[in-house]
Amino acid sequence: MTLATAAVAATPPAWADLHALGRDMRLECHWIAPERRDTPLLVFLHEGLGSVSMWKDWPRQACAAAGCRGLVFSRYGYGQSTPRPADEKWPVEFMHDQAREVLPALFAALDIDAGRDRPVLVGHSDGGSIALLFAAMYPRAVAGIVVAAPHIFVEDVTVSNIAQARHAYLNTDLPARLGRHHADADSAFWGWNDIWLNPAFRAWDIQQYLPRITCPVLALQGMDDEYGSLEQVRGIRRAVPQTRLLEIPACRHSPHKDQPDVVIEAVADFVGGLNKPG
Q1: CA nearest 209: which of 143, 137, 104?
Q2: What pTM was computed for the model?
Q3: Where are the alpha helices (H) located in 84-139, listed in sequence order?
Q4: Which of 24, 89, 124, 241 has a CA-to-CA distance to 232 between 20 and 30 Å?
């Protein structure tokens, strides 16, 4: 465990027990600066292979810069949360299900109230897509959303690189490396990889949901993103006029890793603007 990972794990997990997706599950959760009770709550939604520990120390740094508290959690099948059974295949609308069902159940289990806590979702990749869907489905439940390298439709470049990830998982030490962050690396990897490479998933597209989003949006993406073109965030800006767009040079699919200071400054400025009238 690195020092950065240890910083996140220093706070004991606040396990959330809930019923969603037709099953009971326990989700790994970590609070950041909970003593800042009167500040917005940043809720961090990880990428398709992410977890609490894979964020490392970035959520804490972002919360410190924004003067906020935070919640970092591992979705079902990831991190130390309930693993996905080996024979369970995710449906094409698995991100819709996370937004429609799991995230509201998590908020209820942790007594997160939209009016009191003013949650701001900070989602990366698949987590960004879930944040967009949640803001569209529950427009009064969030104060704003930050989406980094989100997907709003499926591109050839995305599928190609996910196929390369499958090859790496089968032929390199990737399972061992993922095993440092997930109780069941197979649960995390195959749940994500199988559905993204399912031919039926090529038709997945959430652009019709975007005009329903009424909250402020910060959409950012690396200009060298290997998992998607800039059309992903530009499409959000066209459909959601209140979107602030940030295209980051010298940056790939993980802006918070490649350009952490740029992203932290953007998040802090965005959250600070949510508290200003007009």
Answers
A1: 137
A2: 0.95
A3: 94-97, 103-109, 114-117, 126-137
A4: 89
